[in-house]
Amino acid sequence: QVQVVESGGGLVQAGGSLRLSCAASGLTFSSYAMGWFRQAPGLEREFVSGISWSGGNTHYADSVKGRFTISRDGATNTAYLQMNSLKPDDTALYYCAATIPLGYSDYDVVLTRSDEYDYWGQGTQVTVSS
User: With b meaning 16 or more CB within 10 Å and e meaning fewer, what string describes 37-73?
Assistant: First the structure.
């Protein structure tokens, strides 16, 4: 049974940092592309960042580029999202997602659409105060 569990959210002042973790189990972690999404109240879920199965390719939403860094650790089956210079607009419920990127010409691809991911965690809340 595949499980994806996020942790590391919390309350932080603007300009501060948080590191989110995504622990995956029940899967061959090295075969899965991973992604982070977020959803603020009243808004749709949006892509934040993604990383390919090898870790060699990453992609970021323009709103977080230069402030957030995604990474993965195959030894612990964990993906991370390091968030620096946080802003009140970053306040949201952050979700981790995983999928095997089948059907793509480049298997080492970064996926950016939520409908491309098969497995989701329950989310971890990030609140940034001004």
Answer: bbeeeeeebebbbbbbbebeeebbbeebeeebbbebe
DSSP letter at 76 equals T
DSSP calls for 100-113: --TT-SSSSPPP--
- How far apart CA 34 and CA 109 sit, in angstroms, is 10
Question: Per residue in 46-63, pLDDT tens?
Answer: 999 999 999 999 999 999
Q: Among candidates 63, 62, 81, which has minimal Cα distance to 18?
A: 81
Whole-number Å distance between alpha carbons of 90 and 48 = 10
- Per-residue pLDDT tens for 97-126? 999 988 777 788 999 999 999 999 999 999
Residue 113 C-alpha from the chain's centroid: 12
Buried residues in 1-20 as b, exposed as e (16+ CB within 10 A): eeebebebbeebeeeeebeb
